[in-house]
Amino acid sequence: MNEHKITLEAEPQASDMHVLIKGLSDYNAAHANGDTPNYLLATVRDSDGKLTGGLLGATYLGWLQIQVVWLDDSLRGLGYGTELMALAEAEAVRRGCPHSFVETLSFQALPFYEKCGYQILSRLPDFPPGGARYSLTKQLHAKPD
User: Fold this and answer.
1) Alpha-carbon distance 135 to 65, whole Å?
2) Which pLDDT band holds residue 142 (cuts at 50, 70, 90)?
3) What is the pLDDT of residues 37-64, one digit of tens each?
4) Is 69 in a helix, a strand, or coil?
5) What's the pTM value of the predicted model, to 2 decimals?
6) In this structure, what are the phi and psi dihedrals at residue 128, rounded to the nearest 5 degrees?
7) How far apart are the C-alpha atoms of 88 and 99, rounded to whole Å?
8) What residue numbers bound the domain in which 67 lies?
């Protein structure tokens, strides 16, 4: 019988985290007809090419999963976020995904996502303490030509 040691690593190595992520990705692909996340990145850059905002997501199993949306404070409320969302959603539709999913914390962007047509699927109270974590979804539709 093999003996294995379990430890909690306070400062995990990127290479160890990669082994776990790859192992789970390979397992999932074996059970999802080989489908793996197909990442997309939409960016906002200033005139010098400096990254000042963007959206990171992935299409997977018929869904766009939005993982990160961030804009420099100076760009908020100017329409860049809405444009990033529309760009990512259009790409998801092009990739054959009719659904989108995003999570946000109560101090982040709940009203923004609702304005973009997302509906609350779940609310986890006290995450963070005194706030909430929201899961939202949206049905995506191809835009008429």
Assistant:
1) 11
2) confident
3) 999 999 999 999 999 999 999 999 999 9
4) strand
5) 0.86
6) -80, 170
7) 12
8) 37-139
